[in-house]
Amino acid sequence: MKYQYRQSCYSRIKRMICMLAFAAVFSGMLMNTPVLAAVEAEQTKGSISLGCPAEGLEFSLYRVADYKDTGGFALTEKFQNYRVSLESDEWRGTARTLADYAERDGIQADAVLKSGSDKTVCFENLSNGLYLVKGQEIEAQDNGKAKISVPPVSLIALPDASQKDTLHIRVNLKYDEEKMDNTEASQTKIHVLKVWKQDQVKERPASVQVDLLRTDQNGTTTVADSQILKKENQWSYTWENLSSQVSWSVVETEVPSGYTVSTSREGNTVVLTNTKTADSEDKSESTDKTGTSGENGGNSSQKLPQTGQLWWPVPLLMLAGVICLLVGKQLRKSMEEKK
């Protein structure tokens, strides 16, 4: 009897151990699935081809955001301090904003290429994500005046959902033409206007600061001046007597907490639009300096969760823990019956 009883106990314990081992192996297999999927996704590379008007034009490519597991995009480390919207209907203004901040803060492009004889430049071996493309201006003479053709600054998603998730995208860039006097004494002006969206007047800060950026013919960008915009000056300012031999742009020095910024330009007028975001995104933040690095640079304490963190296996591990408790309980009961 004792032998049969002992064998029965051993059999029950063995079944419990097998169940525990199966649960552990099953959990491990499931944990490896996302890792394999991530590896496969990383091995799937794409390309972005740009058509342009001439040979030898230089284009810069920046990887600005990664796809999130939950959908949408998360800014990469280089751009995570900038308060911009990554909603697709805001990409035009976001592209201009990120390009201006990249120039101001000296962010290096991930790739720089020149168009070939076929008037095309192709960036290859690209991982999935959101890319910023910035092209070189074209200058030509037209009846004694310099005619400047300016390419659009664009955000391009790879893969492109609008083209059946294709990994090989081609974009023909349409250049806008501007004319200017080609004399040393020629001057221009820049007008900046602040616009508020989706907020109430009482939520707005008393003032915001903007930087006037000067980009010389060598591509070097510096902050030429800073001004304060507020209600008393109708949230606007105009810089007069600027040289037309260099490029000028405007960025917001500090983006108010709870807002994103978007930039648009029409001629010599730059419009900086601050859009109110959800309160939950900014409850723990006070002053946030956009486009700066270091301890005060952006919301470094509010980083997005790192991709690759897996929370869903937790219930399986809890189940394994419960099985362990049951095995222990069965062992204790068997020992008590044996005594």
TrEMBL record:
Residues 278-288 have a biased composition (Basic and acidic residues). It comes from Blautia obeum. The chain crosses the membrane at residues 310-328. Residues 1-37 form the signal peptide. This is Cna B-type domain-containing protein. Residues 270-305 are annotated as: Disordered. Residues 190-275 form the CNA-B domain. Keywords: Membrane, Signal, Transmembrane, Transmembrane helix. Residues 290-301 have a biased composition (Low complexity).
